[in-house]
Amino acid sequence: MESASLEFLRWLIETPSPSGYESSVQGGIREYISAHADEVRTDVHGNCIAVKNPGAAMRVMLAGHCDQIALSVQHIDEEGYLYVISIGGWDVPILLGQRVTVWTDSGPVPGVIGRKPIHLLDEEERKKVPKLKELWVDIGAASKEEAAQLVRIGDPVTVQLTFQVLRNQRAVGPAMDDKCGAWVVMEALRRADRKKLRVALYAVSTVQEEVGLRGAITSTFGIEPQLGVAVDVTHATDCPTLEKKEEGDIRLGKGPVIYRGPNFHPKVVRLLMETAQAHQIPFQMGASGKPPGTDAAVMQISRAGVATGLVSIPNRYMHTPVEMISLNDLDQAADLLARFVESLDPSMSFSW
């Protein structure tokens, strides 16, 4: 992976983008990709849409969502503690003791998530999984008045945003789900050779996937593509306690995952596989018996229908502050999609 691309990924992970609050990260994506696209725009919903070769007859949309799960300030009590609600799906015990940031209009406010210490929990309390309403954010304020001077109701809260590269080209951070996807689709557009491109290529950093696939609904409707590929993460099963018989054999560093199932057009799946084989790009296969919770689910049924595929990045520890991916898988996914769109002919038909 080129150093500039790696730094772009690091910047994505370390920039807040809770669902509904993606403007900061979208502005950076727009700045990064503008030199490689014919047009970059942000729509009323907040989706960032980059286009290369817009005049072609066939429109192809690549979608990766940039929003991350987070929290939102719901209440400030008399002592200055903040109580929060969830934006997206959290496993609440993971939040215990996390360092967090409240993103306010006047700047970031650091804090920690607190709970009654284990020494003071009675026997029954120790057996129970804590509820979010039983946790609080402590920003060090001495009173409600002091906290309210810094924080407003509705301010988003994220866990500490850090990016770290580990051994074997593996990287860890929050929101790999799905800033990986946003990175891949923009990199694919950047890497696609304009001289070989015969279709209009739209790379979209979609918003609000974690709260209902909302950005993909509006951006797909607006672009009206004939073909679309969503890029998201999927569960890597090469770690303890995960059942390969149920979730498939998906491993970090073995390449992106091409999915098959009723959500995915057979011809798109076949073309993705043939592209990977022709260019010696490693890939894995995954199966889904119903539309999974990715942008592909709504892309497929937009307007009169879109021939849809899904390319996924293996991800360990999903929806935690330490999501782990392989940088090689990301690099290969971007190359796969760049070569895939170069191979498309506007005369292709995807009708049954």
What keyword list fits this structure?
globular, 352 residues, alpha+beta, single chain, 26% strand
Task: Please provide a brief summary of the model.
With 352 residues, the protein is of the alpha+beta class. The protein is 28% helix and 26% strand.
Describe it.
- The chain has helices at residues 3-13, 23-33, 123-127, 144-150, 176-191, 214-223, 244-247, 266-278, 296-299, 327-343; strands at residues 39-42, 48-52, 59-65, 70-76, 82-87, 99-104, 107-114, 136-138, 156-159, 164-165, 170-173, 200-206, 227-235, 257-260, 284-287, 307-315, 323-326.
- With 352 residues, it is α+β, with helices and mostly antiparallel strands.
- The strands form 3 sheets. An 8-stranded mixed β-sheet has the order 1-2-12-3-13-16-14-15, sandwiched between helices. A 6-stranded antiparallel β-sheet has the order 5-4-9-6-7-8. A 3-stranded antiparallel β-sheet has the order 10-11-17.
- The longest helix has 17 residues, at 327-343.
- The radius of gyration is 21 Å and the shape is globular.
- The two termini are 39 Å apart.
- The mean pLDDT is 97.
